[in-house]
Amino acid sequence: MKNVAKLTSKEEEVMEMIWQLGACAPKDVLAIYPEPKPHINTVATMFQSLEKKGYLTHEAQGRGYVYTPLVKQQDYGKSKLHSFVGRYFENSYLNVVSTLVQEEKVSEQELLDFLNELKKNRK
Asked: CA end-to-end span of the chain, whole Å?
């Protein structure tokens, strides 16, 4: 992911809806926004902010604009994961896996199956 600015929690919330919709306008996001819905101007301002931060681009369509994501949701997730691991697990993905196993979120068998699959794919 190219170096883009950090999102606020509200910007991230709107961006998640944009990823869900694909190319869209602020009114499209407002239509799926949960209650209490913000004012359309608030959503439009958020779109402009997301564009300035490098997450969206736009093109004119009719009397308005259609915005398209420039950052893929998976790429954004990877960068968030990297930041999370750095902040809470001393930059150790092994510590993350260990915690998942200890907390019984991932079983030992699932981990072994994953390692076996990984070995098969590397051959």
From this structure: 29
Q: How many residues does the chain have?
A: 123
For 53-111, the pLDDT digits (tens) are 999 999 999 999 999 999 999 999 999 999 999 999 999 999 999 999 899 899 989 99
- Core vs surface per residue 77-95: b (16+ CB within 10 A) or e: eeeeeeeebeeeeeeeeee
CA distance 50 to 116: 41
Ordered alpha helix ranges (H), the chain = 9-21, 26-32, 40-52, 73-88, 93-102, 108-122
Handedness of CA 10, 12, 16, 18 (dihedral sign): positive
pLDDT tens, residue by residue, 5-54 = 899 999 999 999 999 999 999 999 999 999 999 999 999 999 999 999 99
Distance, C-alpha 67 to centroid of its chain: 17
Q: Dmax of the chain from CA atoms? A: 57
3-state DSSP assignment of residue 101 = helix
